[in-house]
Design brief:
The complex is a heterodimer of chains A (227) and B (354).
Chain A (H helix, E strand, L loop, with lengths): L1 H23 L2 H21 L5 H20 L8 H10 L2 H31 L6 H32 L2 H28 L4 H4 L1 H25 L2
Chain B lengths: L1 H22 L5 E7 L1 H4 L8 E9 L11 E6 L2 E5 L1 E4 L4 E7 L3 E2 L3 E8 L3 E10 L4 E2 L34 H27 L7 H31 L8 H21 L4 H29 L20 H40 L1
Parallel strand pairs in B: 7-10
Antiparallel strand pairs in B: 1-2, 2-6, 3-4, 3-8, 5-6, 8-9
Helix pairs in contact in B: 1-7, 3-4, 3-6, 3-7, 4-5, 4-6, 4-7, 5-6
The chains are: A mainly alpha (227), B alpha+beta (354).
């Protein structure tokens, strides 16, 4: 019980620390949001409010995916060799991974929410009612959870390999495609007017994928971290 | 000798596979049963006696043409149609001599012939201008399914035709890739589970088997694409099975790129092993799990990612299983050569450094 409490407080500390560092320099998060809104606005310029259902769905997921990848690709204080050398002795690698995953969930959740809101604002809600938009948003949030659980691991891997953004994309994009296949199908089902109950199994599948990615990361992360 | 026998066995199996794949003929089948009434409308035949043309592929109807029997079937109801004329081995004319009241409009077409056996064309006939009554009675003929008298041949499949031979080239590629990626997976687990500072021998094994596995993956994509061009009419179609295959190859390309971007040998061994475990799990999800949840055009699919037992008769099995074994043996041999080459290369570099 004591160990659990101390683990939780460690994770909480790491998460708070990550958020504090993020908020200390707000240019980073502002840059992400500008990127996302600019991407949505580009789509709006290209299609106006007349995007067909399938295009609407495709554009939404492409923008969400790349906004997400953009969000995790910025350099990170913990990636510094000196900081890592300190952290290895200070915290358990799994705790660090859990904190990082939670932090990515918050970050990607924020970015996705803003992106999706901008999408609804600019490209219109012709293809869905309020409830459907809510269901769509649930899919968006579960997708960012899946992205967070995979990219926490992949980002650490890429930074250990010293590869930067291009390596995150090369390693992460193919692995995330199963998630995107499920999300796009879910979105297109909703827009075609299929009842939520008949397509909700996609959400379950997304949650399972997130859980699977997280479990793999949890098992493998210590091997990645140690020297 | 024992060292070499499995390699010789693999080559012998592949030689047998190539020989039979390219020489065994395709079995006979029915292509079409079509209305030729427009051509015959002036010869005074009444409306109910329409002539139809029966078209086969690889059939032998001029041999004992009097023994050619034609039936149409709906569920358990079956009725004969008279053959008017056998034109040649693959063309015959038949009369649509039917009562005014029929139990259905859509019928399967069957023929019996002493050489070709019973051939079957699903929903081959659609009749119009009849009263449809479910309880309508039809003359019941003597019908017995007969097997073909032809020597060893591959089964006729609608739309697939001769491309069924691709089964021996395309499917074993993925089996072999799965085997090689499995070898890499086990090697990566052993690489990670050895104590820190261990050798990178297992890492070299994983690298070599992924490299050879990629060759088989790319060949699988190419043979599949070529087949799709002839059967589906496009080099690539949007299909869960195809997406899965392409993404798998991309993931392993990512593995090789990751290896290229790390300098330190020990770090490379560890990072590559970690990513490889991810890759194999994704491979399993994409090729084994996701296709079960989605519909697919791919043969043998439709909810079942294994090959469908109905599609595989004994003549195909006799070539397909040796093909899988032969390609796997060849893949293993390639992997061992690749591994030796990598290790020799490494040794050479070390000697050069000293």
């Amino acid at each position: 019980m004591n160990r659990l409490m101390s683990a939780l407080s460690n994770i909480r500390f790491l998460l708070q620390h990550a958020i504090r560092v993020e908020l200390r320099n707000r240019h980073g998060i502002a840059g992400l949001l500008v990127f996302a809104v600019a991407a949505v606005y580009t789509c709006y310029q290209a299609t106006g409010t007349h995007a067909e259902q399938e295009s609407w769905n495709a554009l939404a997921w492409v923008v969400l995916l790349f906004a997400g990848f953009n969000a995790v690709s910025k350099p990170w204080a913990d990636d510094d060799e000196g900081v890592r050398a300190f952290l290895i002795h200070a915290v358990q690698p799994q705790h660090w991974l859990i904190a990082r995953t939670l932090y990515y969930m918050v970050l990607l959740g924020t970015v996705s929410t803003v992106t999706f809101a901008a999408f609804l604002l600019f490209l219109g809600m012709d293809h869905m009612s309020g409830w459907t938009a809510g269901h769509y948003y649930a899919g968006v949030m579960l997708t960012s959870t899946a992205l967070a659980s995979l990219l926490a691991m992949i980002q650490a891997l890429a930074s250990r390999a010293g590869g930067g953004f291009s390596l995150i994309s090369v390693l992460g994009l193919p692995l995330i495609i199963p998630v995107i296949l499920v999300s796009t199908r879910y979105g297109s089902d909703l827009m075609r007017g299929i009842a939520f109950g008949d397509t909700a199994h996609h959400l379950l599948f997304l949650a399972t994928l997130s859980g699977g990615f997280f479990a793999l990361g949890y098992i493998l992360f210590p091997y990645l971290w140690r020297d | 000798m024992i060292q070499r026998s499995w390699k010789i066995g693999g080559i012998a199996l592949l030689a047998y596979v190539f020989w039979t794949t390219l020489t065994v003929p395709l079995g006979p089948g029915l292509l079409e049963f079509r209305d030729r009434n427009e051509a015959a409308s002036t010869d005074g035949i009444t409306k109910r006696i329409e002539t139809y043309e029966l078209i086969g592929l690889g059939t032998h109807w001029t041999v004992q043409p009097e023994e050619l029997r034609l039936f149409i079937r709906k569920g358990d109801r079956i009725t004969p149609l008279p053959i008017i004329d056998v034109i040649d081995d693959t063309h015959a004319h038949a009369a649509l001599l039917l009562p005014d009241t029929l139990p259905s409009k859509a019928w399967d077409v069957l023929i019996n012939h002493p050489i070709d056996g019973t051939l079957f064309l699903q929903n081959g006939l659609f009749v119009e201008g009849f009263v449809v009554d479910e309880s309508a009675q039809l003359p019941r003929p003597q019908f017995e399914e007969r097997s073909s008298d032809l020597p060893h041949h591959f089964p006729f499949q609608p739309r697939i035709f001769e491309t069924i031979r691709n089964l021996m080239l395309h499917v074993p590629m993925w089996f072999t890739m799965f085997l090689l990626m499995g070898i890499a997976f086990v090697a990566s687990i052993r690489q990670l589970s050895q104590s820190a500072g261990g050798s990178s021998l297992f890492d070299l094994r994983a690298e070599a088997s992924v490299q050879v596995g990629m060759v088989f993956g790319v060949l699988g994509l190419l043979t599949g694409s070529l087949w799709a061009r002839y059967t589906w009419g496009a080099w690539w179609v949007d299909d869960p099975q195809l997406n899965g295959a392409l993404v798998t190859v991309l993931v392993y390309a990512g593995y090789l790129i990751l290896r290229g971007s790390v300098e330190d040998e020990r770090l490379k061994a560890r990072l590559a092993a970690v990513y490889n475990l991810f890759a194999f799990v994704i491979l399993t999800i994409l090729l084994m799990v996701l296709p079960r949840f989605t519909e697919s055009l791919h043969p043998g699919k439709g909810g079942n990612p294994g090959f469908n037992s109905y599609d595989l008769d004994s003549s195909l099995r006799a070539v397909f299983y040796p093909a899988v074994l032969g390609w796997m043996l060849l893949g293993t041999w390639m992997y061992r050569i690749r591994l030796q080459a990598t290790r020799l290369n490494q040794k050479l570099h070390r000697l050069n450094d000293e």
